[in-house]
Structure prediction request, 650 residues.
Amino acid sequence: MNVRADDLSSQTVFEPPTDLAARANLTAAAYERAATDRLGFWAEQAERIHWQTPFTRVLDWSNPPFAKWFVGGRLNAAYNCVDRHVEAGNGDKVAIHWVGEPAGDTRTLTYADLKDEVCRASNALTELGVGTGDRVAIYLPMIPEAVVAMLACARLGAAHTVVFGGFSADALASRIEDCKAKVVITADGGFRRGSSNALKLAVDEAIAATSVVEHVLVVRRTGQGVGWIEGRDVWWHDVVDTASVEHAPDAFDSEHPLYVMYTSGTTGKPKGILHTTGGYLVQTAYTFWGVFDLKDDDVYWCTADIGWVTGHSYIVYGPLACGATQVLYEGTPDTPHKGRWWEIIQDYRVTKFYTAPTAIRTCMKWGERIPAQYDLSTLRVLGSVGESISPEAYLWYRENIGGGRTPIVDTWWQTETGAHMITPLPGSTAAKPGAAMRPVPGISAEVVDDAGNPVGPSESGYLVLTEPWPSMLRTIWGDDQRFEETYWSRFPGCYFAGDGAKKDQAGDIWLLGRVDDVMNVSGHRLSTTEIESALVSHSKVAEAAAIGASDETTGQAVVGFVILLESAGDGGADIVQELRTHVGKEIGPIAKPRQIVIVTELPKTRSGKIMRRLLRDVAEHRAIGDATTLTDSSVMDLISSGMNNQKDGD
Prediction:
């Protein structure tokens, strides 16, 4: 079934489970309270965290777009994430169940354990010269030390910049140089798909291109050999494991920098998104508690990497500020077998599971028989993060992972927004497969036309945020002008997210993807999201990507790249024409792809995003652009070969 925002006559709507609705953390009353007194509502949410000095004003918006939230308040993010839970008598509660990729490699850290580790790391970093206002780069695999390192930086008031462990030395160097990181925290290597990949080597190459780094703190993870510079390089076990567990945290202003997160891409000047402490911690704690309907006995698992904003907001700061128990997994979903994720859910009795549509579509390709082998009955809420989830993936996820009973929170937010912005609430929203639904209580969003006016029912436009929010980015690191021009110039007074969206007849929001992923075919604006959803609705298709390629006749023409389900084999000789006809039937003749290419993989970054610009390069027979952020750059050779062997449609 393909469901589109402009055709809801057959739309399935899932009501919240009765038992969950009866005990829901956020109900319709929260929307009413936030609408009546938005700033008063946020002041109430700020009570979720500990303030050493109470704030005197909720919001200072006197110099837009530069916001100050919880003015005058002072706090420490690490204290909020660990110390206060121990002081409240919850030191024995499990904070992290860590699962390494190699079989049997596990660790369990209670909140008391985590506090001790963070204090040790804070003392060690102090000895290495790190202090308030400094920056520290973190380049680690998914191991507990990554969480400890982030919290230790926050404890000291040193902003961290976490760089995904799969990024190149050049990408790492550009980030280190831009934020002037004083120390780099890394590991000898990390495990991925059964082998170890070198990290320290990349750090050495990166540091050779800059002169700002004074020390490299190295975790021994794989035991592989590493280069070593005495006086600069230090082993974690030599200085952290031997440090004192006593460390008194200082309190910092609510607007003190917490971290810089660089957005995707390694070419040109890096774009460092700055998040500060108070507002960010308030909104991540509030949305984690409300959107996932957190209960004391929950075991939560987010599959994101620590190097992405999802790992910051919904592995480290949100869950730990709320005192949650969570799973942290080092490996991939298919190592050592394709049921690894579901095995972990079964073994740790996970109740809340948060992953990306890309991963869901991959599991769809492998087939429902794999998750059917495991007991997933403990799951109470499922989450989706990243690009929009297609109705087909949504329904597969709900049925095969959620047992047909578990609500899905399809969350829309960005690196820049810092926390959830638009999503169903599991205990109070009647959810529609594929729809982001409505802003969370306290958030103001609108879909507008080119003139900035709100669109009507069933009309598409641009998604904007019309009021400031606590976890918003404060600026682009070192470039206020770029911050204003990038996010606030298109629609004066509003933050422009860069995404297209549509409102249905009920006023619910459907995301249509990035506005630069909209193609113009003979004057008709078509969304890649809609075309991809139509392709995936075919019974033989597991995943699809669509782009607009230059066309002499129509301006642009649709080109689709399709991965078939394993059960479909090669799809048969007529599969291309079958899929073209299917899209034409689902959307209309204007959307029928000029060409469909059957592929085994799509070009994805390590965060799971499809690099459509590379597909556009292939379709337009250009030299393939920068592919350094791809999980596997060799996939482009296979796609190019398939493209050359495939003929255009009739």
Residues 353 and 500 are 27 Å apart (CA to CA). The first helix runs from residue 18 to 22. The longest strand covers residues 541-551.
